Amino acid sequence: MTVETIAIVDYGLCNLDSVRRAVEECGGRPLVTARPEDVAAASRVILPGVGAFPDAMDNLRGAGLVEALQRRVVEERRPFLGICLGLQLMASRSDEGRSTPGLGWIDADVRRIDPGPDGRVPHIGWNEVERGGDEAVFARVPSRADFYFVHSYALCPADTGCVIGWTPYGTARIVSAVRRDNMWGLQFHPEKSQRNGFQVLRNFIAS
């Protein structure tokens, strides 16, 4: 493994081929892996995911990946990108299914979306991201650009200072992007969001 490798963490909950191909097309050198030693050696780490929060945390723990992620991302401060469920796993806990502790990198709960009478759950399809501030991961992406979403739960942080993107949905305002130090999280799928999503991936790869 070389220092340029981007580890795409495989914990058994989604087809990772679209993420791998997008990273490759954006100039990265992806490695889809479930091995803690690969995470420990990667220059960057992507944690994607579609599925249930409790199952995800169980699988990460069972594979020894929680410790590897903590060491490589938090202690060694390598660039990290959480996508969809990967963003939610950064939280302290989730109410999905049963109350489940997350990675604890952001002081936040994950709760079911309440879009009001005019919205439906899950939130599926294209929607805009209202950006907060001048964030490098959105460089060369138009303001209020659309991205592709598929989710029923959303991050609810104790302090919104980490939020770099919001998305309106019904009467709700969903957290769609966060940053803490060397970590970014996206509720949308950049690998499915065409030009704008690929630009976000390029920005992360260049970080």
Explain the overall architecture.
- By secondary structure, this protein is an alpha/beta fold.
- It has a single domain, classed as 3-Layer(aba) Sandwich (Rossmann fold).
- The protein contains six helices and 14 strands.
- It has an eight-stranded mixed beta sheet.
- Strand 12 and strand 13 form a beta hairpin.
- The longest helix has 12 residues.
- The radius of gyration is 16 Å and the shape is globular.
- The two termini are 20 Å apart.
CATH topology: Rossmann fold
CATH superfamily: Class I glutamine amidotransferase (GATase) domain
Show unreliable segments: none
End-to-end separation in angstroms reads: 20 Å
How many strand units? 14
Q: Describe the strand arrangement of the main beta sheet, using strand numbers.
A: 2-1-3-4-14-13-12-9
Mean pLDDT: 94
CATH class category name: Alpha Beta
Strand share of the residues?
25-35%
Q: What is the count of structural domains?
A: 1
